[in-house]
């Protein structure tokens, strides 16, 4: 069942059974695209992990990666040793191979959300699933990796965004991420209402958005490049201590400014295919907005991440970051 779960979810097909056995434990299908894995033996030091993919429908590599891990589990090559909630985010957007259908799901994870419609309703269901999952394991360390791929190339193809929240990130996270092939870290400077931010802000979870290369259609991803990341996910499923490496091998950045699209008449003043983390010198004009005016780099150089002039009005059109020291 596990190896077919992704296809069944996307076909909106009713599975033969909503629960069953797997090596080391059981699975329960709570709703379309929401699958809980429960270990038979509760290792006291294993994390309770949320692994989410497909929050954006065109970001397929994480879906394939997680699918391979679940297939290995079902085949008995792995043994479940920790509670894991597996989430396929925006099912309809995945079916359409689009980033979102009506609005960006990854801006809706807040408890005071009032909007209705497909993506807001899905956000509410996913928040509820995370709340009930973590409530079942109050004594455990919590973890949430929300796996994405980026629209454009990047000076660092694999990087994480650390959401802004009071909960401190444990040093071991940097070690695990470095060993999993992550090349750069971007610390957020303010609340962002993404899925990983939700878990960190409301549940004091170790949480990150992981960017694992470029967004490509199903079948076009090179999963060999993500083999170290697969090993990290497998360790979490088995409740084993993941491999570690020196955090200093990653490059650290902190967001200095969030560039917002304020008007219809908005444009970015650099090429569409500019890679993430491209640095612009003081004096460079980065954006023009009929309402907010031009944005010009001042002081120290700024590196641009996730530039996208086509975002919804009032949404983030780019993050602007500066290098920072690795955490102690
Ligand atoms: O490549 C892009 O422009 C977007 C890739 C993506 O979906 N990134 C996430 C980052 C979430 C975060 O800031 O933690 C997003 O924009 O939702
Ligand atoms: Zn994404």
Automatic annotation (TrEMBL):
Note the CDD domains from the entry. M14_ASTE
- Chain residues that bind Zn(2+): 56, 59, 148
Q: Where is the active site?
A: 211
Q: Where is the AstE/AspA barrel-sandwich hybrid domain?
A: 249-323
Keywords in alphabetical order: Arginine metabolism, Hydrolase, Metal-binding, Zinc
Into which EC class is this enzyme placed?
Answer: hydrolase
Might you give the EC number(s) for this enzyme? 3.5.1.96
Q: Which reaction does it catalyse?
A: N-succinyl-L-glutamate + H2O = L-glutamate + succinate
Q: Does the keyword Zinc apply?
A: yes
What does the record say about how the cofactor binds?
Binds 1 zinc ion per subunit.
Instruction: Report domain Succinylglutamate desuccinylase/Aspartoacylase catalytic positions.
Output: 50-231
Named cofactor requirement(s) = Zn(2+)
Under which pathway is this protein filed? Amino-acid degradation; L-arginine degradation via AST pathway; L-glutamate and succinate from L-arginine: step 5/5
The family assignment reads: Belongs to the AspA/AstE family. Succinylglutamate desuccinylase subfamily.
Role summary: Transforms N(2)-succinylglutamate into succinate and glutamate.
Q: By what name is this protein known?
A: Succinylglutamate desuccinylase
Q: Which organism is it from?
A: Billgrantia bachuensis
The gene behind this protein is: astE
